[in-house]
Amino acid sequence: MKRIDFLIALLLCCAVGCSGKGEPAVPEGGDGGLSEKLTVNPTLQAHMVMQQNKPFTISGTGTAGQYVEISCSWEGKPGRVQVSADGSWQYTVTTPEGGFDAQQVTVSGKQTFTFDNILVGEVWVCSGQSNMWWPLKDAEGGLSEMIGANASLPIRLLHVPQEQASAPVASLSARWQPCTAGSLEWFSAVAYFFGKQLVEALQVPVGLINASWGDTTAEVWAERDAVLANDAIREQALKQDATPRADAQAPYRIGSAFHAMIYPLRDIPVAGAIWYQGESNMDAPGTYPELLATLATSWRKLWKAEAADFPFYVAQICPYERVFDYRVPYANPAMRFAQQQASKLIANSGVICNDDIGDIHNIHPRNKQDVGKRFAFLALEEKYGKAGQPRSPIYAGHRINGRVLEVDFSYAGAGLETADCMSPTYFEVAGADRIFHPATAEISGHTVRLTAAAVPEPAFARLGWSYTHTTNLRGKGGLPVSVFKTYDWVELTEEP
């Protein structure tokens, strides 16, 4: 009889100490009720897009020992979490497949916060300097897009305020907005057209985070410690760190935009990033590939993401006439080639070429629609596995056969062609004397064969090595071939 009494008492003890929902036992001194005080961190907002099929952490503060209840419209029942002794709490949910139905999240203590009109889909960070910042209202076709916009469009916008800081800023001040004429007016045109193309192709909502600022160098967008720890870029970065920009408002300290505009985004799960910048680093194209690789690595570290889960896509700047005196000759084509090299150095990256849509008289060409679409083509093929997207052919290697220098191209798809059905233009070759001469170019599949009567023993080649001259060579998908050179020495004279 005593044994039976003991077993009953033991069972009662277990029942009191455990919850049927798997909740922790109420700590000593806590009443186990809903939290008297409650805040919710702004990572969770109404009107946002959540990255589909990813863990999403909801967090905030409350009364220690008490409970916060979280209810998500896509889950069968609410969850509970106990507020820690330091007054903080966090609760992780897994988002569903993307879809156009609006979702709702409620967070409750003694008061309730409701976050509605949430969509689930794909979220991208869009960053860089003025050509990424360029607003839709000033882009070709932008006004018609604004007129046709309404809050039911499955694109949501997060416009990060232009701020700088000497240390990481923990909290996010930006607010998600539906896609309306008012919210689009000053939003990045490149980002918008990128998102629009993704929505059409993927049939899921897209969230766009615009963190951009004109006249900024790449150094301000990278983690400061990561830049200073890299021997290959430290010296040049410190020069930038000591040199205010022409725009007195633009940040120039290493990491200053990263601290204020990128760091606060760290708890928002994203699909990847697109990057359009380079004009402000044209004085030092030689260190740019390593600099951009350091930036991409620091972002992936911030998001706790492996390279395979965080693509980083790069847009080349456009050709435009030389309006500044740069420290290095051929600064513009050198930067475009450096951006191509950076995309090869960065794991899970790619580059888009914009040579055919620039304005040689304007550093800010107004055609942002094609830039956004080309970013989308790259993402659709590489991130989302939709093969057959248009790509710009990229220099893959070369070989010398007597008087002929043969250049191979990757991403040439069905082959190469010229936009005007004429012979390819703006190829040059040089011998051991390093003096370049125009070359006759002949297309053969994915290869171009170069010869020049003045160069019987070719050693080096380059394409489109000019501020303003662009080749007519393109892939049969219609996108232009990017500039390249086959040597690593720096020219000693500027383009005439």
Task: Please tell me the total number of domains.
Answer: 3
Q: Tell me the Rg in angstroms.
A: 27 Å
Largest sheet: 11 strands, mixed
Number of extended strands: 24
How many helix segments?
Answer: 11
Beta content comes to 25-35%
The geometry reads as elongated
Mean pLDDT score: 94
Task: State the CATH architecture of the largest domain.
Answer: 3-Layer(aba) Sandwich
Helix content: 10-25%
The level 1 CATH classification of the largest domain is Alpha Beta
Q: What would the CATH topology of the largest domain be?
A: Rossmann fold
Low-pLDDT runs: 1-30
Distance between the termini: 106 Å
Could you name the CATH homologous superfamily of the largest domain?
A: SGNH hydrolase
Q: Structural class, please? A: alpha+beta
Any overview of this molecule?
The chain has 11 helices and 24 strands. The chain is of the alpha+beta class. The strands form 5 sheets. Strands 2, 4, 5, 7, 8, 9, 10, 11, 12, 13 and 14 form an 11-stranded mixed sheet that branches. Strands 15-16-21-20 form a 4-stranded antiparallel sheet, with no helix packed on it. The protein has a 4-stranded antiparallel sheet with strand order 19-18-22-24. The longest helix is centred in the first third of the chain and has 16 residues, at 2-17. It is elongated, with a radius of gyration of 27 Å. The chain starts with a helix and ends in an 11-residue tail after the last strand.
